[in-house]
Amino acid sequence: MANEICSSYWLGEKDVLNLGEHFVELLAAAGGLGVCPAAKSEGRHKDVWMIIGSSLNRETLDRLLGKFERVVVWGAGNGCGIPMAANLTQEPYASRVVVRAVRGPLTVAHSRLPASTVQGDPGFLMPRFYPPKRAVPPGEGETLYVPHWSNRKDAEHKRQVLGCSAWMDVMMPRDAVGAAMQRLVDADFVLTNSLHCWIFCAAYGVPHAFALPDGEQWNMPLKWADVWQWLGQVNMPVPMSKLSEAREWWDGEGRWIQTPDLAPLLRCGPLVSA
Predict the structure, then answer these.
(1) What is the pLDDT of residues 135-154, one digit of tens each?
(2) Taking the CA atoms of the chain, what radius of gyration do you get in angstroms?
(3) Topology of domain 133-256, CATH
(4) Geometric angle at alpha carbon 229, from 258 and 247, rounded to 5°
(5) Cβ–Cβ under 8 Å, residues 207 and 248
(6) Domain ranges of the chain
(7) 250 Cβ contact partners less than 8 Å away, ≥ 6 residues apart
């Protein structure tokens, strides 16, 4: 267990994970650590980590504190807003929830944390440990539509409406995530409403934009606002409905968005080695 952490992530004990959940295991592996999903701990771990995800709220914390001595937070966020927020300055959270970092300024405010709290989603650290190696010449890659897992219905039709050449599923087994990451790196453009696909593209410099075709739901807008504000953006991203307008947004605005210094996030997370 010395080289293993226990982490709470949505489908951790399953064979098929959401894209962002794979980042938990990949970042841990980069630091020489294995990951035991919380559902499989069976009392072997005192601490449980919250890394990738939007469930830093009372319901989740109360459930985890019923099974573990401590919850350690490194980059998780509250995507549900104030009604579900846990005041981390009050018990039982103050003494049993260790905050290394949270996703962004909204989570800081809603959780009553000090403004000095380290912020950032660990997904932005992926290129440090899995450097991009584009295999397709620029201009010859796919234009991809990557929907949130809950928006996958009629994805083929929606990618045609958007004007993309193909669509990619964010739900995949562990042996498929490497190919999926390479596909994103090789893409000429990505339209997505999956937050961690968006984060991946932003981190790797892949041209991308937020898209929400007709009939789709914007899953947890507050989790996007958390990241968006951390990036120094005042207004929420405007959903694109066509690849052509998305390219215009990228050329005029998206490509200039800068990621804050990730060194503080890296230093406070023992999952990865500097």
Answers:
(1) 999 999 999 999 999 999 99
(2) 18
(3) Rossmann fold (3.40.50)
(4) 55
(5) no
(6) 4-127+262-267, 133-256
(7) 189, 207, 208, 209
